[in-house]
Write a structure and sequence with these properties.
The chain is mainly α and 376 residues long. 74% of the residues lie in helices and 1% in strands. The longest helix has 29 residues.
């Protein structure tokens, strides 16, 4: 969320290509992919609080160290180190939410979780860009790293221990048995594949939104903050409402509506030319609302595809595939998009938009095959 809005700065600062920038984005996700695979075998054998605290400390330290990077290669290396810990955070958070809330009320919980993420976008990203504009790009990483360590202290002293999942855990299980519990269950496989395509579709256009708005649409670096502020603010309101709608009307109805509505701003943004900032922000805000909204319904049922006993392992596997999808989406879009040397504009962004829509349609068919597991 910090790397992508600062994309234009990194491209100029390090004198790198669009493809190299996409590697900077995807490096974190590839590292997160491999660490999440390791988490498949370990996340369920610890108190959720202790596991969350351990990986969050690693994430905070890695983010803090990024503020001292002075070269593309050094920042790339530190992003890989940060991704090793960051990859498991999502799995742990979703496991905690799923342990606390029953499936019938989990849509509301997911909506609230997405709303919290939107608050981070509405406040954190503009503030980070402001810090970068007032100082340099190192400053946001320094401040975020310190903030993460403060949150660790809050977790340590206020977060409750969560060990209920250990009661139904087979303590003698092997790596093979842990993996088999997931891979032998077609329902969990369906959920994992659906989650992979969902994230692949979601992130296909995201890495280059900010650089594209600057180069092709005419936004300044500070005006980029408006898309995150208003988009995040809007989803703070819309996400809980969509979450409640999922509980009331069902996963597929809400997913179909939000998915197809998200295609409209996707098409507009990826074909956008020079427009007033207010018009551009309207389109990006609509994308925030519906692109975030389409994540709530499928994640509600994906989290219910596994039972409590192996939920942490399943979520870690899901997180691994999710991070792989983020990394691949950045790499794929980076190979399709290029900067025209004559006009200094990005080309082929519209093709990335069409691909995102196709992947979104595929996701709809995959989510239909997921069933709610017992104990949810």
């Amino acid at each position: 969320m910090i790397i992508m809005p600062l994309g234009d700065i990194f491209i100029r600062e390090f004198n790198i290509s669009a493809a190299q920038f996409s590697i900077l984005v995807s490096a974190y996700s590839f590292a997160a992919f491999f660490s999440s695979l390791i988490g498949v075998f370990y996340l369920d054998i610890f108190d959720r609080k202790k596991a969350l605290l351990f990986i969050y400390v690693g994430f905070g330290v890695g983010t803090f160290m990024c503020s001292f990077a002075e070269s593309y290669e050094w920042l790339l290396t530190l992003r890989i180190g940060t991704g090793i810990f960051g990859g498991m955070i999502s799995a742990m958070v979703l496991s905690i939410v799923s342990d606390i809330y029953l499936f019938k009320e989990r849509g509301k919980a997911m909506g609230t979780l997405m709303g919290a993420f939107s608050v981070a976008s509405a406040i954190g990203v503009p503030f980070a860009l402001y810090l970068a504009a007032q100082g340099d790009w190192h400053t946001p990483f320094f401040v975020l790293g310190i903030s993460c360590l403060i949150v660790c202290v809050v977790i340590l002293f206020t977060f409750p221990s969560m060990t209920d999942h250990l009661k139904s855990l087979d303590t003698d299980r092997s790596f093979r048995q842990t993996l088999s519990a997931i891979t032998s269950d077609n329902n969990q496989i369906n959920a994992l594949v659906a989650g992979f395509f969902l994230v692949l579709a979601h992130f296909m256009i995201i890495p280059f939104i900010s650089p594209y708005l600057i180069k092709n649409v005419g936004f300044s670096q500070m005006e980029i903050t408006y898309q995150f502020f208003f988009g995040g603010l809007a989803t703070v309101i819309s996400s809980p409402l969509i979450g409640r709608a999922v509980d009331k009307y069902g996963v597929m109805k809400i997913l179909i509506i939000t998915m197809f509505l998200s295609f409209i701003p996707t098409l507009i943004i990826t074909n956008l030319t020079v427009v007033p900032v207010t018009i551009g922000v309207v389109y990006t805000t609509l994308f925030f609302i519906f692109a975030t909204g389409r994540m709530i319904a499928p994640n509600t049922i994906i989290t219910a595809a596994a039972s409590q006993s192996n939920r942490g392992s399943f979520m870690s596997f899901k997180s691994a595939l999710q991070q792989l999808a983020v990394a691949l989406s950045a790499l794929i879009s980076g190979q399709i998009i290029f900067i025209n040397k004559e006009t200094d504009l990005y080309e082929n962004y519209n093709i990335v938009g069409y691909l995102a829509i196709i992947l979104g349609v595929v996701t709809l068919f995959l989510v239909r095959r997921i069933k709610v597991a017992k104990g949810n």
